[in-house]
Amino acid sequence: MLPEKGFIRPGIIVAGTDSHTCTYGAFGCFSTGVGTTDMANIFAMGDMWVRVPTTLLFQLEGTLPKYITAKDIMLFILGKIGCDGAAGKVMEFRGSIIDRMPMEERMTLSNMAIECGAMCGLIAPDNTTHQYLQRCGQDLFEEVISDPDANYEDIYQFDLSHLEPQIACPPKPDQVIGISELGEVPITKAFIGSCTGGKLFDLAQAAEVLKNHHVAPGVSLFIVPASLEVRQKAENLGYMQIFVAAGATVLKSGCGACINAGFGVLDKEETGVYATNRNFKGRSGDPTAKNYLASPRVVAISAVEGRISDQLSPRAEHQKKYKKLDIALNVSSMGCDRTSTEE
């Protein structure tokens, strides 16, 4: 809500009692999660003590393959450096891929910096940032960007031109493999939502997949818009109608199953694929359950297929055509009722 209401702008410092406060680094500000004691001090004293962190630079180049998203990129990075690879540091993202990335996708990258242990995920402001801020009615800010000769603790350079969809296997977000290495993993639940996977861009991915398709038998798909504003926009764009027609359950905005609350949590021995940010044991349900992480698009396809997949099978396409044929036959039979049995 803070970005969409115009409260986040470049050059400021943001502290919040949620580790995913680092999301706002996508706007070129230093944002980090703090504990309740630190927040009480901020309220009482108006200050916050922070040891200036070192920075890791991630230079992301190339041209992303079709349907590869920021979630895939962040899972890929997690697989490379691990959950402690940026502990207590800042992750800064640059490169041609960032230049072409919309704000909501940048927010996904910054959001999951904490999964690498980072305090913040920084992206320098540019025209994309300015346009987003202007739509939010925010045009007063002072940019702070890295000096040309800035010192980085380490620099990672990745060409992502051939990146395939990435999957984080239980029980840690850094247990990442390409989907082609996964094998057959049937699922019983799928979840698209949270601060990582419930933005309008994420719901658009899901709607594109689910249009004229239906969730597989034995699978429950839960969709949670990230905010009331996102929900309203999704309704206006027709996404909600698509979700309902596909057999998904749309829940109220909130953390939900991502923090093991409400509908969508995994029961004993269940397997799910979630567009959330963490899959630690017991994070989103029973400790005996298995939770895989993927992009919203992969989660939607998996819900239709009944297994983790990034491709709709010919069977699903056949069901899509059969549904259209069935509707046509029903219309035809309505005409027959008005004529003789022989006809």
TrEMBL record:
The keyword Iron applies. It comes from the Bacteria. Its EC number is 4.2.1.33. Keywords: 4Fe-4S, Iron, Iron-sulfur, Lyase, Metal-binding. Residues 2-182 form the Aconitase/3-isopropylmalate dehydratase large subunit alpha/beta/alpha domain. It holds the Pfam family Aconitase. It is an enzyme of class 4 (lyase). One of its GO terms (biological process) is amino acid biosynthetic process. This is 3-isopropylmalate dehydratase large subunit.
